[in-house]
Amino acid sequence: xxxxxxxxxNSGAERGGVVALLRDITERKILQEMRSEFVANVSHxxxxxxxxxxxxxxxxxxxxxxxxxxxxxxxEIINSETERLSRLIDELLNLSRLESHKWVPKxxxxxxxxxxxRAVAILQPRAVEKNLAIKxxxxxxxxxxxxxxxxxxxxxxxxxENAVVYTQAGGEVSISAAATQDEMKVDVKDNGxxxxxxxxxxxxxxxxxxxxxRSREQGGTGLGLSIVKHIIDAHRGSVQVESKVGIxxxxxxxxxxxxxxxxxxxx
Length: 267
Ligand code: ADP
What we know:
The protein is an alpha+beta fold. It has helices at 26-61, 68-99, 112-129, 149-165, 197-200, 212-217, 224-234, 260-266, and strands spanning 2-9, 15-23, 108-110, 133-137, 145-147, 172-179, 183-190, 238-244, 248-256.
């Protein structure tokens, strides 16, 4: 609590009592703590690739440049760490834009089936590299949703990319969409490594990873799922995950379908 004590004076200049103002500042304090924890996390996440870039560059300057094979290997690491760094910065900017309340998703008709096919086409080369099959199951009459096509593409890319990254070679990823009268549901299912039960409720937190080393190795930033959650929340939808270690995971999101035409008819 923040306490303000204001003395009251009566006409004879004697103290006539005090007014005490009590204000609950716990919420503000929690926000402040969250903010400084976030800054600490960001600094740590930025420092890790920088330390590695610097280390490999110094080793190259100290003589490793003379051995072409070693030099190439070190330069490849420097290159991939630089990529991860710029991806981290892009995702941080993305997240900060989503978190600023100024951002409102576009509302235009979106063909979810098309977005799914495009996201799969983008990720197909990575799946082929790992000998993974990606399947798409779409009903013929999938309705159009109102939403932000760029943002919804980002959701699909993040979920499908995770499914590809966290599934062993030879595995399978399948994406399906279905709609009821009121909502559309999209499932991204894999038969990969799965998520332990104690981590399930935490994977949507910023920077949370089940296995930091594995995520980093794959160029992960730990921000993908928190971006997904923000975007789906902004579409007044919900995201959920079901998973079993060693069996696989299914990430699903639901978006309400709005029957504007119907409500307009009634007005
Ligand atoms: P990252 O950049 O680490 O992939 P995300 O926010 O996308 O960050 O995901 C957070 C964590 O959730 C990942 O580090 C991983 O541990 C876990 N995860 C996400 N998707 C899957 C999946 N399909 N299978 C297994 N684990 C997953």
